[in-house]
Amino acid sequence: MSCRAVGPQVEFFPEGLMPAQVLCVQCDKSEEHCVCEKYCTICQGQLDVRLCMDGLYYCPDCRDACDVSLADNRAR
What distance in Å separates the CA atoms of residue 63 and residue 76, rounded to the nearest whole number? Predict the structure, then answer.
């Protein structure tokens, strides 16, 4: 399987500014408020999937393989 996810393009922010909060691309809510069915964008697995910086959900194996960072909104 490819690490290229089908979906929206990643938005880059000038001068390293990061968005205040990463939102789910389906419902525009943060991970803790998202009620979407959560599954990995790459393998469709449902175990330990988390929202990542591109607004999509990934399992740990696909996150590592594709070098995708978690969207850790809980620290904000």
Answer: 22
